[in-house]
Amino acid sequence: MKWHYRCPECDAWRLCDWKKRSTRKKCSECQKGYDVPTPRSQHDAYVDTHEWPVDMEREVERVRGKKCTVPKCPKASQTLDHRVPWSDEGKTSVENLFPMCTDHNESKSTKEYSRWLRELQQQA
After folding, report:
1. Secondary-structure percent of the chain, ordered helix, strand, coil, rounded to 5
2. pTM attached to this predicted model
3. What are 36's strand-pairing partners?
């Protein structure tokens, strides 16, 4: 799993292996040393897989809570959902992941969130 993030010194996009992100790095653009940002410090940083790491899930829950984020849904979330679907080049990032109950997640499938929500509201 690769972690794509911006250099904290010059804002250039960098990448490293997710498991090696705790190693101090030197940016090839600005030549400055830095600690690799975390999902908490860069919400637009992303991993290159559909699955997300636990650190990212914790940050999504910290920011958005543990309840399904579909309006009027009282259920607890059981998963995270890509608002812009992975299949449509949506990133696996804190910025693009939202808590969702299993029923809504399965109903949405690979649709874009706002389009799916409009369809859902029209059915009600």
Report:
1. 30, 25, 50
2. 0.90
3. none
Q: What is the rounded distance in angstroms from the CA atom of residue 34 to the CA atom of residue 45?
A: 16
Verify that 94 and 123 share a domain, yes or no.
yes
Based on the domain organization, do 57 and 14 belong to the same domain? no
- Tens digit of pLDDT for each residue in 21-50? 988 999 999 999 999 999 999 999 999 999
Identify which of 62, 60, 63 has the alpha carbon closest to the alpha carbon of residue 81.
Answer: 60
Do 55 and 79 belong to one domain?
yes
Query: Tokens 């940050």 correspond to what residue?
Result: 59
For residue 58, what pLDDT band results from cuts at 50, 70 and 90? very high
Q: Which two tokens stand for residue 54?
A: 């636990």
Position of tokens 């972690």?
Answer: 3
Q: What is the sign, positive or negative, of the torsion defined by CA atoms of 39, 53, 86, 61? A: negative
